[in-house]
Amino acid sequence: MDRGARQLLMALPCTVGLILTFSAQPTQTDEDLLSRNLSSLLSFFASDTDNYLQELSGFWSYNDTTDLSKYEDFDHSKFLERPVDRLEEVVRMTPRPVPMPPPQLPPVEAAAPEEVDEVDDLEQLLPNMPMFDNDMVTNITAQLGGTAFLNCRIRQLGERAVSWVRRRDWHILTSGVLTYTNDERFQVVHTDDTDDWNLQIKYVQKRDNGTYECQVATGVGTISHYFNLHVVIPTAYILGSGEYHIGEGSTISLVCIIENSPQPPQYVFWYHNDRMINYDTARGGVTVSTEPGPKTHSRLVVNRATPADSGNYTCRASNTEQDTIYVFVSKEGDNTAAIQRQETSGGFCSLPMILVYFFGVLISS
């Protein structure tokens, strides 16, 4: 056997002994590994290292679950109880990030004067949206039979179309300059190069009363402005009660008052049994006088009344609700004519006249 083989045989017992020695040592636990790692990190504490490691082992509560970490709920209070000088030493040994210099931005060149003017001009950058004039009158009063104008003024309209809608039945009356209703009383009035789009309603009727909408489609929605049309109906009423009693040969005097008329009527017509008598030349003795105003007064006078003048008398004006009264003309000697003389206002019976009437009836019976 050569020399190398002999040396190998001599070293074999030592190798087997070392293997048995290491295999006989207990397996290191996680806590032993933690202590060894901490001892390597805190070697600068010199002779007090063992005590320090023993205290650090209680900083965490061990968790034997499947959580991400086995060491949870780090107890900072124990760590802060260490001497301040050692903590400051640990902080000094902790590496800190090196601050990075700010990036170098290229210099900003000043914009040319013409470019600055374009940026400042916001009206050129934003689209011109249509706007309603806030000074428009939205409550319009029109007399029955008259003409109503609903004035809608829109600025910055551009190529957009203006539509008028009747809110009562959501009927589109007009769009642009076109009319979309068979009722020829409606039409839009617009003059080129103006902002006015006015709805005209001729011969206004009761059913025209209500709300109308002036609207514009902007592409992102619809903007609207509302107008309220109030139709006023003039009313005529004859002073006195529903009946007028007078004796033969007396004068019939009736007074008619017309109210709620923004425009006073030019003419007031009187009818006897549906026959106009304003200009009754055949009968004669008939006169009509009218005083226009906020309350128009019209007086009918019929001289030397006869029983043929009895009947219905009606006061009527253009586009006005009429009123009617019945006139009784009694022959001379009839007690009815004696006890119900009409005052100049017509139709008022006093209490003494009523007593005389009943007394006459008793005597005649």
From TrEMBL:
A Gene Ontology biological process noted in the UniProt record is:
synapse organization
Write out the GO cellular component annotations: neuron projection membrane
Gene3D superfamilies on file:
Immunoglobulins (2.60.40.10)
List, for all copies, the residue spans of the domain called Ig-like: 127-224, 234-326
Which UniProt keywords are listed?
Signal
Q: Where is the signal peptide?
A: 1-29
* Domain of life per record: Eukaryota
Q: What is this protein called?
A: Ig-like domain-containing protein
